[in-house]
Amino acid sequence: MKKIIFLLIIMVTLCQGASLFAQESRWKESEYYYINVPIEKIYVHRLGFMVIYRRAGIGMARTFLPAEWFIGSAGKGDMIGIRGGTEWPSMSVYYHNGEFSHLKLRIRSNRSHSTWGFIPMNVNMDEHFKDIEEVQLQL
């Protein structure tokens, strides 16, 4: 009889402890969210990159990313190389409290892949790379 009472007390204690732990570990909503878009083409320019991406509906859109965003650890951009396989290049744009925070480009390491392109030197694209503070995605 003492064993049964002892086991009953232990079970009640464990159940109460588990419910307290469950209350403390509730999910907290993150202040960050991201939008991921597939990249169709990424063009290299001396001032940065012009990225052509798929819109959520039908069609394509483009955005310009300054080269300085990808320099150093405090930059606004990261490039993650894809070596092979079936993963398609993509761009993830992260927002913190509704404002642009940073972005990640997952792109093919091999620049001979069909998603890479180069803007000819005689094409003046300098205006598009001026005063860019954030990415404005067209969805």
List keywords for this structure.
139 residues; alpha/beta; 17% helix; 39% strand
Radius of gyration: 25 Å
Q: What percent of residues adopt helix (DSSP H or I)?
A: 10-25%
**Beta-strand segment tally:** 7
What gap, in angstroms, lies between the N and C termini?
69 Å
Please tell me the total number of domains. 1
Determine the structural class based on helices, strands and strand pairing.
alpha/beta
Short account of what is shown:
This protein has 139 residues and is an alpha/beta fold. 17% of the residues lie in helices and 39% in strands. It contains 1 helix and 7 strands, in the order H-E-E-E-E-E-E-E.
Provide a descriptive summary of the structure in words:
There is one protein chain. By secondary structure, this protein is of the alpha/beta class. The chain has one domain. Helix content is 17%, strand content 39%. The chain is built from one helix and seven strands; from the N terminus they run H-E-E-E-E-E-E-E. It has one helix at 2-24; strands at 32-45, 48-54, 60-66, 77-82, 90-96, 99-108, 116-118. Strands 1, 2, 3, 4, 5, 6 and 7 form a seven-stranded mixed sheet that branches. The radius of gyration is 25 Å and the shape is elongated. The chain starts with a helix and ends in a 21-residue tail after the last strand. The mean pLDDT is 85.
